Amino acid sequence: MKHKTVDAILDRALLGYDISPVEGVVLLKQTDPEAIAAIQSTADKLRRIQASDTVTYVINRNINFTNICEQHCSFCAFRRDDGDDGAYWLDWAQILEKAIDGVRRGATEICMQGGLNPQAQVNGKSLPYYLKLVETIKQEFPQLHLHAFSPQEVQFIARVDGLTYAEVIAALRDAGVGSMPGTAAEVLDDEVRRVLCPEKIDTATWLEIVTTAHQLGLHTTSTMLSGHIESPEQQIGHLEKLRSLQQTAIDNGYPAKITEFILLPFVGQEAPKPLRRRVGRDQPILADSLLLTAVARIFLGNWIPNHQPSWVKLGLAGAKEALVWGCNDIGGTLMEEHITTMAGALGGTSMEVETLQKAIASLGRPYQQRDTLYQKL
């Protein structure tokens, strides 16, 4: 009977129907190798239909401008208090230097996110500090796409300065931010968030800020932090919220929407001890990540066609494997990455374009450089 259910779900998905949350949970709970192989093959077929055989990549440079943060997420090995060993906060010259280095190496995008540093202010206000971060880069390189500031950072600025989310997002957009990373999502389930990130924005606030960005013409990505304490039901609940968010943007004709989905498997090696003990391992389980990657493609692909693995978290070999489990993009060169690396990830912090191209070509698939918003370059 079990097989029949899985086959029926996959057949409907291949006909172009959206699967239901209940069906998504059934797929995620499969342990039989044959059923898992069928899920993989369906995800791979849907990827071909929804996103083509070409694997895309972006040349980008990451700037994590500070690790000083007022919050204490239970999975985070990046954050520090001001004055701690290893705490840092880049000045304007250092930020510009990193941007110059990125451009020299062919970057079309700077991705910028950092800790929530209460001292990061200009004239006693938070927003002008963030605007200056943007202007420091955009004055020098107006053509660079700035993919910057998560929904959590938007809420932080709004709270500190007494502004609405829309005011903050519009100001960032007008200063030159081109798109918003859909990070700080972790798992969009408040029970999970109470353990994982009790001080972070709740599910409803994350969804509200991302929707507001879409209404104001700022495209976003979407992410999920997986493989820690969340259940299959909670994973699917997360995907369901993303799907309905995207449906809202499309049905209402908002000027922007979600460009991609990125699965971020939990790396626990350097994580704070209580969560690390609870999870009980240091590195992601590749098989779990791949099954979730496939189910995410099946669940979201009609609405969010671009799916990307994290080579930082899975390593390049794992990320390459994900390209046959539903992913059509291999992400970016990054050039530098602190948040995941400080968590003990083994993937490295920088990828040469040639290395990404070789990995893609070894699967017999064509590769293509793209920009942040998935225009081919």
What do these coordinates show?
The chain is α/β, with parallel strands linked by helices and about 375 residues long. About 45% of the residues lie in helices and about 10% in strands. The protein has 15 helices and 10 strands. Strands 2-3-4-5-6-7-8 form a 7-stranded parallel beta sheet. About 50% of the residues are buried. The mean pLDDT is about 95.
Topology:
Blueprint: H1 2-14, H2 21-28, H3 33-51, E1 55-58, E2 60-64, H4 92-104, E3 109-113, H5 127-140, E4 145-148, H6 151-161, H7 165-175, E5 177-180, H8 190-196, H9 203-215, E6 219-226, H10 232-251, E7 258-265, H11 273-279, H12 286-300, E8 307-308, H13 311-322, E9 329-332, H14 339-342, H15 353-361, E10 367-369
Parallel strand pairs: 1-9, 1-10, 2-3, 3-4, 4-5, 5-6, 6-7, 7-8
